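Work Package 3 committed the consortium to producing structural models of liganded targets before the mid-term review. Because experimental data for this complex are still outstanding, the team generated a predictive model from sequence and the ligand definition alone, so that downstream docking and mutagenesis planning could proceed in parallel. The input record is reproduced below exactly as it was submitted to the modelling pipeline, together with the SMILES string for S-adenosylmethionine.
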Amino acid sequence: MGNKISKTSKKSTPLPSTNAQEDSDFRYIGGRRYHNVESLKYPLPNDDEELDRLHLQHFLLRYVWQRNFGAPVKHILNQDGTKALDVGCGAGSWIFEMASDYPNTQFTGLDISPIQPTEIKPKNVNFIKANLLNGLPFENDTFDYIFQRFLFSSIPKDSWPDVINELTRVLKPGGYLELVEINHIPFQLGPASIQLSIAVEKLHQLRDLDTQIPYKLRSYFEQQGNLENITEEKNRITYGPETGKLGQAGIENAMLVVSHLKTYLLEEMKMTSEEFDNNRDVIAKELREFDSYHDLRCVYARKKEIIEH
Ligand SMILES: C[S@@+](CC[C@H](N)C(=O)[O-])C[C@H]1O[C@@H](n2cnc3c(N)ncnc32)[C@H](O)[C@@H]1O
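The resulting structure, written out as tokens with the ligand in place, is given here.
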């Protein structure tokens, strides 16, 4: 990743108390901290600023959905010895809430970036560092419930079926798989927002990522063959004038993503840093004025008891 970016600057601030084993877990570009896996497309940083954004985004999503999960797993999560996995767990916002709501379940958070706290965490939570694209480091039929949210900017277009196979492999028969994805290009846009969206789309195409993934999840689940009771739910994060504080928080989140992608977008948009920042303020206003929204899909399914090979 980041072939175009040759200048690296390393922050001298100490690493936070996380499960990072070594400094080589990270790379630093333009004062921001990133994962250090050359082959990985994921473009967002993993520093404190981004972790704060992920927390904000989590609260936004919980409000939009009015829940933390959609699959019918409440009774499973209340049983002793249940095992749940959060793939690409990020800052751990979802997992910490779930671990507190369901103390009988043992939660595992997996992420390429070892940025999650190791000491101050509930005892029913553990984190591991792994690259989902290399396969999951678990035996077949390990988890009762698997959750994965917003991995669209990491999984290459053609790898989605393999990823869903892998998630299904480590799911117990009778267990549930749940994926939540966003179409990161909003709808109902003003002129500056359209220009930005074209640049963002190009960035993702160059990285071989699939921006239409929310609409393909259901059919990938169906093609997998060992998933049943497949359910798709639709939702939106809305930004229009009627949306009050929620809309403002959504716009703040969307603009933070834009800022965090700035390194990559500057060249594509042929703007100076100052022009980019001014343009971002225009976009924030447009999202409100044009009643823009981001489209969401949540798809969940049960793994068949009798597996077809
Ligand atoms: C947009 S964040 C979403 C975080 C979390 N799921 C949430 O909804 O708050 C994507 C996360 O996936 C992680 N990630 C990206 N590619 C990955 C990979 N190949 N294997 C494991 N984790 C990955 C990133 O480090 C990041 O924490």
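Reviewers should note the following from the model. Residues 163 and 209 are 14 Å apart (CA to CA). These observations will guide the Year 2 experiments.
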